[in-house]
Amino acid sequence: MPKVKVVERILSANDQIAAENRARLDAQGVVTINIMASPGAGKTSLILRTAEALRGRLRVGAIEGDVASSVDADKVAAAGVPVVQINTGGQCHLDAPMVTRALDALPLDDVDVLLVENVGNLICPSGFQLGQRWDVVVSSVPEGDDKPLKYPGIFTEVDAVVINKIDLQPYLDYDEAAFRQTVRALNADVPIFSLSCKTGEGVADWADWLVAAVDK
Amino acid sequence: MHELAVTESIVGIVLKHAEGAGAKRVTDIHLTIGELTGFVDDSIQFYFDFISKDTLAEGATLTFKRVPARARCRQCGHEFEPSPVTLWTCPACEAIGGDVVAGREFFVDSIEVE
After folding, report:
1. Residue B62 has what DSSP assignment?
2. Is residue B17 included in any domain, yes or no?
3. What is the CATH number of the domain that holds B27?
4. Is the pLDDT of residue A1 over 80?
5. Does the predicted model carry a pTM greater than 0.90?
6. What ipTM was assigned to the predicted interfaces of this complex?
7. Do residue B74 and residue A123 have CB atoms under 8 angstroms apart?
């Protein structure tokens, strides 16, 4: 029986469309950041705080991914940020074709940084490329310090980690040092930012890092 | 997770190469899957049987070569398999973190045809 050598990498249709999105965004000079987290970790709050902190430095746009509703996009639009809401209708993650359609509806000429809020989930979003340059995971203090132990995959792959809701630290048994140590064991050099979207503490450091990273 | 999309891609690659070789039928498909990709053999097999129906690849046997994850320590260069307990801590020098040297493979290695 003849054997045919193939050695061809398996790319899903999604990966191919993601590569097209990336080429389009690069050509437009738009840096896209895929923000992933559990439901309620503060993804929308982080987008609002980030847009505020970057005002006058970088022009922010947003894509809001949710299973249903336009609650998040309404909040972001009210802050004066160009935004498109994607409703996945049950799908647990955004995919590249959804982002393609959202890009068609955004004024990309007026955007330097596109913040994409993925569906709240720590597993599936990390398996689907969208055309992003960076991946960020947000983990909040009430979720506990053991999240990276339970969901190592996503922490291994991201380019930055944000710890949100540090203002709640006094009321909870959250060991930030333990959290950081586990993240380091999975992803040695990843920048980790501790902040509170409620009080604004720590947001400036995160915003400064973004500005420097976008300039690179 | 999400084996359907990649199985479609596998069938596409297999058919392209089978047709290129003038084959009448594909009997075997050899896949290489790194541990870190998270893809599950049984799911791929399940979707394959469904998607390959009425194609040259219908009825082909899938074989999976699993590649364990391996990391190289950034401190001492020692290569090791990350464990669920110690994660990416080097067993030789206990430094944390390493570069992935194996485990992200995901490709169609070869096919056998008639």
Report:
1. E
2. yes
3. 3.30.2320.50
4. no
5. no
6. 0.84
7. no
